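Ticket closed. Logging final result for non-specific serine/threonine protein kinase.
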Amino acid sequence: MDSSVFKLSPFLSVSVIVLLLFIQIPSSLSNNDLFGDCSNQFVCGRIKADFPFWGSARPSACGIPELELKCENNITKMSINEVRYRVLDIKQDTETLRIAREDFLVGLCPPLYVNSTFDPTMFESVTHDYMNFTFLYGCLPVFFKVPPPFTCRINGVDYDSGFVVPGANGPGFCYSSVFFPAPVIALASILDVPALKRFLKKGFEVRWKADGTACRECLNSEGVCGYDTTFNQTTCYCRNQSTGSSTCAPPGSPPTAAPFSGRSTASTKGYIRPETCKLYKATEFVDQDSN
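Final structure:
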């Protein structure tokens, strides 16, 4: 049998070698790109942010997947568990952000009745100054001894039966319910709709959970922080060095390998809403599986 058909011509051999060389190039270029891209801040209006956030000029590898920021008409927004929030402030030094529900900024009748819930492995409350409140929609007035403070249109019908009650409550005899965190002092304004709206516009604070120590070590080694979605941990992008290290190495030295840590989980206790697995309660974020 003529085995020449299994042999590469000199031209093809050179072509294959050149192709292999080009295949190796993107791995080094990609790290340089991430080093440059993740050095950029997210900037939208007066809001500025870097790790662990991503969005706009910062690709997804620059931050934790759940912390994507979007800039719309110079207004910073983000989504948490299917609820859209407006970002009012971000404090990198204390790892806190102040957010307000987008739907409640335009009125008390949201287009979708979705609770404000937070993953306790990603967020935690900041102080004891917040508590849960519940908007009840389309209620039977016979069950309440006070006049309804607001009206909402539900399925094309105006229902003069909207109420606000403390705590995270189910709809009961009402059409629907939505619970949300607000300052404890808002309890005195529970029947004062204009005052309640002002509290909603001020939003509330949450603290994000990220490996700040790993990021600081990366920055001290002249790297930039990013996020490894394969191992769910902070990583360090270095100039002209491979990714996946915890810190950048001086020229001529190997980078420090990043130890696997994974994202920590929280064990908390609090009130549990049967139809949802997580909710914000004063200073606790509750996970139903932990009870």
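The radius of gyration is 26 Å. No further action required.
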